[in-house]
Specification:
Blueprint (H helix, E strand, L loop, with lengths): L1 H12 L6 H5 L4 E5 L8 E9 L2 E9 L6 E5 L5 E4 L15 H22 L6
Antiparallel strand pairs: 1-2, 2-3, 3-4, 4-5
């Protein structure tokens, strides 16, 4: 079922040449996919292999869009996880709303970054 996983990865990241995934999916582990394979994404990955086959969990950063945290199973099914956000909105008419919304964003992101660190998808 690795073919389904590769196809889902290629479709999601708009990547035609997926030959680099063969070696990556052959054994469990984590690392970084070189940007030239998936321009303009910077992707950290975790490959897990179990009785169901292999899965690929990725944290992908693209400076033009939002970050993506997802997992693709051996059948090619993509599960999306929460990702950090880089913006917040506030009501300038409400005193202190800007600070409150900014703090809420930071708290939200801290929790997500902790999870990504625990999985080894970002550096400590």
């Amino acid at each position: 079922m690795t073919a389904e996983l590769k196809a889902a990865f290629g479709q999601f990241f708009d990547c035609a040449d997926l030959s680099f995934l063969d070696e990556l999916l052959a054994q469990p582990g984590r690392g970084t996919i070189p940007w030239q394979y998936v321009t303009p994404w910077e992707i950290r990955y975790l490959v897990e292999i179990d009785a169901e086959g292999c899965s690929l969990e990725v944290y992908a950063v693209n400076r033009f869009t939002n970050d993506q945290h997802l997992k693709i199973d051996s059948a090619g099914v993509i599960s999306h996880f929460t990702s950090p956000i880089g913006y917040y909105s506030y009501d300038p008419a409400l005193e202190g709303d800007r600070e409150a919304q900014q703090q809420a964003m930071y708290s939200y992101n801290r929790a997500i970054y902790a999870e990504l660190r625990a999985k080894g998808l970002i550096d400590s």
